[in-house]
Write a structure and sequence with these properties.
Structural class: alpha/beta
Helix content: 40-55%
Radius of gyration: 17 Å
Order of helices and strands: EHEEHEHEHEHH
Number of strands: 6
């Protein structure tokens, strides 16, 4: 299954949905595609969309997905990393009226250049190549949340 999320930003992100539609048109894709489309106005021909999903639903889809494709917001791609998967990240761009500026592009480039934990997509050619070359998303990202919570709990107990 492929899971796509564009987040909840109020500007449409039609470009990502069009990328996926075009990719399906050009390739024989029988895999289920689940898409959270937010405020996008484009209606795909090849897969169904749901405007908004509950956070728990999104996390379940991330768990189940073979591929996860997100916009460039960290609250969308960090949960994918936390599940040990490498997200395909398509940052929203101001030139397409997808966001007010290019902060997603700048942020994602920095993450890509320094952490190497995301697959950054800046055009359709990158998108197509990423989907054709991805067998399974895996990431070296390791969450230290449990260790942090355990250390914090020990610290608090020591204050008694």
């Amino acid at each position: 299954m492929i899971f796509i999320t564009v987040g909840t930003h109020e500007q449409p992100f039609d470009r990502l949905l069009k990328y996926m539609d075009r990719f399906i048109d050009e390739n024989d894709i029988a895999e289920e595609i689940i898409c959270q489309s937010g405020y996008s106005t484009y209606m795909p021909r090849n897969f169904k969309v749901t405007s908004f999903l509950k956070h728990t639903e999104i996390l379940n889809y991330i768990d189940e997905a073979r591929l996860v494709i997100t916009h460039g917001g960290p609250s969308s791609f960090i949960p994918v990393l936390a599940k040990g998967k490498e997200p395909i990240v398509v940052p929203r761009k101001a030139m397409y009226s997808e966001h007010v500026n290019n902060h997603q592009v700048d942020f994602c480039r920095k993450v890509n250049d320094t952490q190497h934990t995301i697959k950054l997509i800046e055009n359709y050619s990158d998108f197509k190549n990423a989907l054709l070359n991805k067998k399974k998303h895996t990431s070296s990202f390791t969450s230290h949340n449990r260790q942090f919570c355990d250390n914090l709990e020990q610290l608090i107990r020591g204050l008694k």
